[in-house]
Amino acid sequence: MNRILTPGRTPGRTPRRRTPRTNRWLGAVAGVVLALPLVASGASAAPAADECVYGYSAGQSVFFGAGEAASGVPNRDTGNGCTVMDEIMADAPFSTHGQFTSTVARVASELERAGVLTDAERSSIARAAAASEVGAPHPVTGTRSVDLSTIGLVGYTVRATMPTDAEGTLAALAECGFQNIEPSGRVGNFYGYTSAQLAPLTDAAGLAVPSLGVSLSNLENDIDGVIAEAHAIGAEYVRISGSSRWTLADYSRTAAVLNEVGATLKANGITVAYHNHGYEFETVENGVSGYDVLVRETDPELVTMELDVYWSASVGVGAVELFTTYPGRFELLHLKDLAADGSFADVGEGTIDFAEIFANASLAGVRYGFTEHDQPTPDGVTSACTSIGNLAELRY
């Protein structure tokens, strides 16, 4: 379960001879040129340096979004540890759709001539790029309203009352407009309930449970329990969080775990998601963050991201910036607001531009958004109802 998947390596293929393109996630420090000694006759050449350390994994496909934007073409090693996606997305984010499609066409043609791609694969990648929303404008028009059927609440907001009055809490949430909830906990304990025990209560309140928060330990050590809990309450997703103590190597190992368990979960109708805090963006080596590693090294067909827009904004990383850099990778969002003083705020009461987030949601691949407040006042239900009320009035 904890085996490390090495990104960017396809055994048995000799890297093509080419002039390396400038790459934003080079493992070496920019501007430093390593002078390699000439190899004496009959001596073995040293292996080529990995220019795309923590780049996109060769174990996935070339992916620009769901549906027709997913090419299905293997994300092959292009030489020196880089992959097709590394070559294409090195210039992300793209300012226009035309810039993106022309970049894809140029890179794919180069790789076809180099023997990395077949003509059919080059065509498939070009079609996927054309069908994607990458670089396309996503303006805020002020004419659209939020589809509240896709909005839920993170159960953590009402953690104070769920253990003692789950029925009353769930009924109050439904009364003010919620149609979904994402319980948080671990296998066997969601506010003192198993999923099987909680399911009749959410059903009675008319709340669906699209996603369930579990622990990374659950995924690694009790995958059958995770599947049973998700099935008992009808969850399509299970999500986990990480640790502020992790290095990039730890994020890489976690990506490998997510890919491995993701395959098992997908076979059971469940998608695994990773929920961020702020530290994933602050753990950086040579310009690559822990969050970059998680997105690039996980298979988009098996693993999605649950972006917490508060935590990313708290360290200066905007949601739309991430959507444009990693299109189609964010099927779930945690919607909570950032007050001017850095504290938590009800959605719509702080500094985050939710209209812009919703305008770009299709680029991100969003299916559900869950409001949340880590320190709700005066209580969790009141805070939650304020947030969904503001979303009901939002026009984007």
Automatic annotation (TrEMBL):
Source domain of life: Bacteria
InterPro entries, per the entry: IolE/XylAMocC-like, Xyl_isomerase-like_sf, Xyl_isomerase-like_TIM-brl
Pfam families: AP_endonuc_2 (PF01261)
Annotated keywords: Carbohydrate metabolism, Isomerase, Signal
Disordered as annotated region, ranges: 1-20
UniProt keyword Membrane present: no
Biased composition (Low complexity): 1-13
GO molecular function: isomerase activity
Signal peptide as annotated in the record: 1-45
Keyword Nucleotide-binding annotated: no
Domain (Xylose isomerase-like TIM barrel) ranges: 170-359
Name used for this protein in its record: Sugar phosphate isomerase/epimerase family protein
Organism: Promicromonospora aerolata
Record lineage: Bacteria, Bacillati, Actinomycetota, Actinomycetes, Micrococcales
